[in-house]
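Exercise: predict the fold of this chain.
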Amino acid sequence: MKRKLKKLLSNPNRFFFDYFAKRLGASTSAIDQDAPAFGSDDASLNAQKFSFDDKVHPWVQVAKQFNLRSGATTGHPDQSMLIDATRLFDLLLYTFWIAHCLKVDVRIYTLGGGVNITIQRESLWRMLGVENTYKKIQNRPDFVVEFLGEFDNNFAAHFFTFDETQDGLIVVRSNSAYAKKTLRNTFFEAYPTIINEFGNWAFGTPWPVDVVYTWVNKDDPDWSEMWGNTFPDKIINTDRYASKDELRYSLRALSKNMPWVHMVYIVSNCAKPAWLIDNPKIKWVVHEEIFPDANVLPVFNSHAIEACLHRIPGLNEHFIYFNDDMFVTRPSSYYDFFDDTGRSVAQLEPYGMVQKGNNFDATREFLSPAINSQILLQKRFPLCKANRLHKHTPYALKKSVLEAIEEIWATELDQTRASKIRTPEDINLPSFFYHHYALATGNAIFGDAPYLIVRPNNIEKVENNGIYTYKFLCFNDGDGSANDEKFLNNYKSLMSQTYSKRSPFEIEHSSWCSIKISKTIMAYKTRKDRIPYIRSMVGDAAVSLDDGRWGLWENSRRCWLSRDPASEFHLVIQDDAVICREFSNRLSELFADVGNDYKNFAYCLYFRIKGNSKNDVLVNFNKRAIAAYKAGKGQFIDKYLRYGIAYMMPSHLVPEMIDHADKLDHLGNHDDTRYSHFAAHKGLRIVYPLASLIDQDPNYLSTHSSSSNKQLGATWFIDGVNSFKTHIESKQISTELSPPTSKVFYWDDKANFGDEIGPWIIERISKRKVNNVRKNKNEVGLMTVGSIVQQIDRPGMTIWGSGIIREYGRAKCLELSVLKPKAITAVRGRLTRDFLKNKLGWDVPEIFGDPALLMPRYFNPPKLKYGITLCPHYVHYTAFKETLGEQFEVIDVTTGVESVVSKIAGSTTVLSTSLHGIIIAQAYGIPWVWIRMNDAHLLGGDFKFEDFFSILDRNAVAMIDVKLEELSSLSISSIAEKARIPAMSFDGDALISALPKEYHPLS
């Protein structure tokens, strides 16, 4: 297809605009690009071409109507939108229509102050207003639109216009553009889509950024009383402590122009103002929460308070400190405060003033702390000039840098914190010290934002130049401003004109979000580069960043505890996640597919099958997935959590889940296993989307091992290839269950006679294979032969014939008490029963006997003749073999159950250091002697032996104490003469009857 024809079909407005522009010989930027047909003065908007949804954020509707992209200067979803110049007139029409539906006025302005228009709601219908506005902004590179109303998330939208050239290039007019000139397809890759979060406009700045205010109210009676008690003879400085409602207006400006802020913290030792309502995005912080030494309180020194701000509980790494008299006057982005790598922007004055001995105006109280800071900094960094003050603009700060400063200069900070009012010895941490330290250490860069300190002698500047000329204003106390009536009147007039509407912090409001989901990114320090990407896809997610000290489980735990209690769900996303496009929209579709009770489920947004698995759990998982896929469903449900790359829980269940998971420390760092255990315990079913909304980035290592993610991709990612369909068609997925098995908990890490008897016995009794559940902590089973009760690592187990290895103290008892088994049907001996019953309070029947005693019922060994045999525990085997192996048969207990039993049963006498060597000899009626190794004790010492002997005639037990060095001198024949078969109190039928029915043969 020819290029011009393709252009005509894809964008006819642009085609004809360029066609006529070329023939008229004018530049594209100077022409009325949409060529709207202006009507008469009384023409009205045509309402029929528009629609309005009062449940969806107005700017979301505008962006959807015009397919607008965001991140005009940042490349991240923010409050900016890019609009094709040929559609600018339609944009204004639709915006005015939205304002009419909202019943609000509209303000449109440009940042330099050249345009500042307010259209009253009663005039919104008139086409003349649209036309006049269009004429004023059509050639502008950017402009701002505000809805002058009171509703949630009512931010100022910053529009940037772009043109498309005849060569197919898109050129953004603003020189601040993230990508000024791009090909058409590159444009849509460079600029992100807006984040429509269930009807609300969401923001995806690279990192979560908090704002901190400090505030004081001299009219608070409690504050005045504290002052009077502390300084009975000192008059309050009205200039310093006066309030002009700055906090209220500053918050209005903040919510309008920096809506992407994560949380707002207000630090004060006064009561909250009456107008400030409870809001999940704002937290009131009292001094007791942040001062390390509460004994220094109360303090009235801003330097002291500011030296504690980084200690605010829950504060994010990146935060911006506002004095309550600071205002952000127009839309500002993340990059006004931090750069791509997270370094803070230092807005220093262009001139120097700070120099030792240069405190030319001591009454101002600002030079001395700066000079003190400069002296400290120059001692550590001799080349650091640190002679420029920071402008009276908000301070961009990083918590880790402040913590590093505190570690180095702890004494100086403590001295400042202890100063109740400002003193010449103070240091000013966030307003001076921080920025020069950060610059010296490579943690900050220079900035130069337009600002003005507004005082009685220059407030006319704001009125004359326009408030939008400046990015920041500071209505600084001083020069008698508290009592200057003209200044106060001008100030109130400016505030009422600019910030007349209440912010979300002042009014009860309904959220645009139809479903509220709080989110946390679980990140590790070596992969923190992934955080900006994930936030650009899912919006304002909190970050839990492990610096290497926490570990997987602790970081996971912190992620869940960071949830917003007011949310319906909390979602934890790993840092190696790949997020689908239109994430919230697709998640909404998943909820719809689940049905009206969607809030009663957990959600695992990543789906992967194990194609050739024979594990029953995984096979059932595969079968459910295939059945749902073939039925055309968008999801399937399972009871186990598989691969929690992105796991979402009903928010109200999170505290209960963490409380439950905290008791499963035996599971170590396996956070998914802990949460799966809780889901099974709670009966909470888990939804898996078909296809996955999340994938894993193959370029990273797994979070729980050192293996690559390359083999851990989603079976079917919604923005990728449907390999699930291919697997099904090629029958590469296991859907046939393996034959039923008996689930037994036993050690199989090393071949050992005692550990192997248990599964051997159960296979013979149940007549089916045994499945070892020890390493699969999602499963429960039977604990049988061996000293393994203390190894119980999950609730729901059953104990049959096991014992403990020794008696334990209080700590182990507390641990075991949490892991109470489902049932205890028999134990090895009376000592085990006494411990479990008396120390742990467990119900234990008086059915005794090691299941190895049942061996003669299931194994008839060949007729062998060995005479005297030695049966050492495997730890003693080498010593016995080397010393006595040429004279006697030394049994290797690692050679398999039937081999070992055959040799013991074919002996005339057995001398054993192994408990199960003794038990098998007793079972087959072979006289035996216990060789007790004095200098090579087994784990647990004598306890397990005495536990078994408790069902024997203890006086008839033959025993000899031996040291390894004495083996060569032993008279084995003399020892063998002591061998006996003690009388035994054991009922084999009772022991078999005590075996749970699921371990008996299937009918």
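Check your answer against the key: The chain has 33 helices and 38 strands.
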